[in-house]
Amino acid sequence: MELGIDSFAAVVSDPVTGVTLSPADRLANLLEEIETADRSGVHSFGVGEHHRPEYLDSAPGMILAAAAARTSRIRLNSAVTVLSADDPVRVFQQYATLDLLSRGRAELVVGRGSFIEAYPLFGLNTQDYDSLFSEKLELLLRLREDTHVHWSGRHRAPLRGQGVYPRPQQAQLPVWVGVGGTPESFVRAGTLGLPLMVAIIGGDFRAFRPLVDLYREAGARAGHAPETLRVGVHAFGFVGDSDAGARDDFWPGYARMLDTLGRERGWAPPRRAQFDTACGPFGPYLIGNPDTVARKVTYVNDALGGVDRLTFQMTNVLMPHARMLRSVELLGREVTPQVQAAPSGS
């Protein structure tokens, strides 16, 4: 199994002084996190896309391009590209360019997004939420197959064979489909034979097994080989020197983030007891010391019938930079070897 990290490039405040990092300093720290992940053996690093004041990742391709120049091994991907609100031609060009800059390390995870700010920002109607994504994904996949595409649709001007450049270094630019809990999304990814990235930020991992099975069944019906139907999971994760220390480090920023979103969405305030339960053996968070986290990774793999990539959502708005770097190192140097040495699950 591949272990990776995802970041939403959240604005971060120092938990002791309360001083908020400048955007330039925060992005400099993020690049150092990616460099540390590269040195430590983490397989991939993803940067999200948001159009909100508390995040700095509205242009993830730019951040990843800067990371490409400072790394040599780690895979670099979006997490996710809000394809519904973008132009597939520009998305392809940007990530093909990233692929060249990184010498073949770029990947795309595309989705519809869990926030809707991008839609009015770019003059789109949220009522077209699904049709925008379906049509633009179709075009993106056509573009990665052919330089000259003839295509027409509802939401974009037609293409009449114009060349789309540059072409990536990889023979085929990897495209994952990011999904939440909608069965139709799992079926679509399976039918297209695309790798699946499931965001699991609450509940029980085992509850997602029927959806993952649905994905595999749809892929098999469409004639795709089982080895092409890769499953990824995106979940909250953080590695510390001890279980209690990891939870204590992650909780303050986690609580602030959920409290901010909760006020918008009508959620109850986060409670520490619920958080600690979520970090337990059967909860949805992979937070603890390296041994605890490695066991949890194995549990997730078994619960979902095999996972090819697990990405840790480590963004935290109150995390000291040195502590974040330490967690990245522990994930690469201590958790990854344990996971790779463990026998495969069912």
Describe the SSE topology:
Elements: E1 2-7, H1 23-40, E2 44-47, H2 60-68, E3 75-78, E4 81-82, H3 88-101, E5 106-111, H4 118-121, H5 129-145, E6 148-151, E7 159-163, E8 175-179, H6 183-192, E9 196-199, H7 209-221, E10 231-239, H8 243-265, H9 272-278, E11 286-288, H10 290-303, E12 309-313, H11 321-341
Q: Number of helix segments?
A: 11
Give the topology string: H per helix, E per strand: EHEHEEHEHHEEEHEHEHHEHEH
Question: What's the rounded overall pLDDT mean?
Answer: 96
What structural category characterises the helix and strand content? alpha/beta
- Give the amount of beta strand, in percent: 15-25%
How far apart are the termini?
13 Å
How many β strands by DSSP? 12
Helix content: 40-55%
Shape: globular
Strand order of the largest sheet: 1-2-3-5-8-9-10-12
Rg calc: 19 Å
Notes on the structure:
With 346 residues, this protein is an alpha/beta fold. Helices cover 43% and strands 16% of the residues. The two termini are 13 Å apart. The mean pLDDT is 96.
Brief rundown of the structure:
The chain has helices at 23-40, 60-68, 88-101, 118-121, 129-145, 183-192, 209-221, 243-265, 272-278, 290-303, 321-341; strands spanning 2-7, 44-47, 75-78, 81-82, 106-111, 148-151, 159-163, 175-179, 196-199, 231-239, 286-288, 309-313.
Can you tag this structure with a few keywords?
globular, 346 residues, alpha/beta, two-stranded antiparallel sheet, eight-stranded parallel β-barrel, single chain
